[in-house]
Write a structure and sequence with these properties.
- By secondary structure, the protein is an alpha/beta fold.
- The protein has 2 domains: 6-120, Rhodanese-like domain (Oxidized Rhodanese, domain 1, 3-Layer(aba) Sandwich); 147-268, Rhodanese-like domain (Oxidized Rhodanese, domain 1, 3-Layer(aba) Sandwich), CATH 3.40.250.
- It is 30% helix and 13% strand.
- It contains 10 helices and 10 strands.
- It has helices at residues 9-13, 29-34, 63-72, 90-101, 114-120, 150-156, 169-174, 199-208, 226-236, 248-254, and strands at 6-7, 21-25, 42-43, 80-84, 107-110, 147-148, 162-165, 181-182, 217-220, 242-245.
- The strands form 2 sheets. The protein has a 5-stranded parallel beta sheet with strand order 1-5-4-2-3. Strands 6-10-9-7-8 form a 5-stranded parallel beta sheet.
- Helix 4 (90-101) links the parallel strand 4 (80-84) and strand 5.
- The longest helix is centred in the middle third of the chain and has 12 residues, at 90-101.
- Pfam families: Rhodanese.
C-alpha cells in the first residue's frame, strides 16, 4: 500500500511531533470537542467542504472556499496532511479527493479511523492553536483532474471501461448505469480492525469483480461521497487509470441517462 496515499496508525503516531505533518479531523465539531480527537488535529467538518448549491462541479465547494477553510485551519500548501473520521475513512477520503483536486500535493488518508486510533494510542480534548495562513489554491486542469463529466462517462460505456457502482445492493438494483459492476466501498474495510484489509486480499477482491489495474475504471455512487474512498484505495494500490464521476447517479438521472434495474448476479462477482 502506497504510504504517499494511505498511512498507517503507526506511521502517523511516529510523526506527531513533526510540524510538517498536519492532522485534519473531518467529524462534526461536537464529536471533535466532546468525544476527543488525535493530538494536534484541527477540525474541518465534512459539511464545510460541500457545496449544496451544485454551482462548482457537483458537491465540491470551489477552490477559493476550500482554500479559506484550510487557511483558517492554519494549513499551508507545503504541509503533509493526514485526514481521518470515525466512519472507516469515507468522509476523510472525500477531503483527500477535494484537496487533491484543488492542488494540495501531499494529502493522505489515515488507514483506520478515530476508533481504531483510540484502541492503540492516546487521544485528547485539548484544541491545538495554529495561526491562520493565506492559503493559495492551485486547482488541477481538466486534463490533470480525475473528475469526468456525464459525456465522458457515456463515452466510457462504449469502451472496455469497467464502470463501478459503490453503493448498497438495494440502491444498485433500483437504478444503475448500464453494465455497471457493484462493489460496495465497505468491502475493503475489515470490520474488526476498522482498517483496510491486507493488500493481497484487496487485489483478489477487486479482481473478482473485474476491477483490475490494466482496465480503465470509472467510479460513481449517488453524490460522490462513497466513491472518494474507493478512489483513494485504488490509487494506493497503484491503479493509474481511475476516473471519478463527480455528478454520479444524481446527475446521470437528471440528464435522462439510460439505466438498468433489478438484480444482476454477475455484478456481484459470482
Amino acid at each position: 500500500m502506497d504510504d504517499s496515499v494511505v498511512v498507517s496508525l503507526d506511521w502517523l503516531a511516529s510523526r506527531l511531533d513533526d510540524p510538517a505533518v498536519r492532522i485534519v479531523d473531518v467529524r462534526d465539531a461536537w464529536e471533535f470537542d466532546g468525544i476527543g480527537h488525535l493530538p494536534g488535529a484541527v477540525n474541518v467538518p465534512f459539511d464545510s467542504y460541500r457545496d449544496e448549491s451544485d454551482i462548482d462541479r457537483g458537491t465540491l465547494p470551489g477552490a477559493e472556499a476550500f482554500a479559506d477553510l484550510l487557511g483558517n485551519a492554519g494549513l499551508s500548501p507545503e504541509d503533509t496532511i493526514v485526514a481521518y473520521d470515525d466512519t472507516h475513512g469515507v468522509f476523510a477520503a472525500r477531503f483527500v479527493l477535494t484537496a487533491l483536486e484543488y492542488g494540495h500535493e501531499d494529502v493522505r488518508l489515515l488507514d483506520g479511523d478515530y476508533s481504531a486510533w483510540n484502541r492503540e494510542y492516546e487521544t485528547t480534548s485539548e484544541t491545538a492553536a495554529f495561526e491562520p495562513t493565506d492559503y493559495d489554491p492551485d486547482p488541477l486542469s481538466p486534463e490533470e483532474s480525475p473528475l469526468v463529466s456525464y459525456d465522458a462517462v457515456a463515452d466510457a460505456l462504449e469502451r472496455d471501461a469497467v464502470v463501478v457502482d459503490t453503493r448498497e445492493l438495494e440502491e444498485f438494483e433500483e437504478a444503475r448505469l448500464p453494465g455497471a459492476v457493484r462493489f460496495d466501498w465497505r468491502e475493503v474495510v475489515d470490520d474488526e480492525t476498522r482498517r483496510l484489509k491486507p493488500e493481497a486480499e484487496l487485489e483478489a477482491l477487486l479482481a473478482a469483480h473485474g476491477i483490475t489495474p490494466d482496465r480503465e475504471v470509472v467510479l460513481y455512487c449517488n453524490t460522490a461521497r462513497r466513491i472518494s474512498h474507493t478512489y483513494v484505495v485504488l490509487t494506493a494500490l497503484g491503479y493509474e487509470d481511475v476516473r471519478f464521476y463527480e455528478g454520479s447517479l444524481t446527475e446521470w438521472l437528471a440528464n435522462d441517462g439510460e439505466v438498468e434495474t433489478g438484480p444482476v448476479a454477475a455484478s456481484e462477482g459470482e
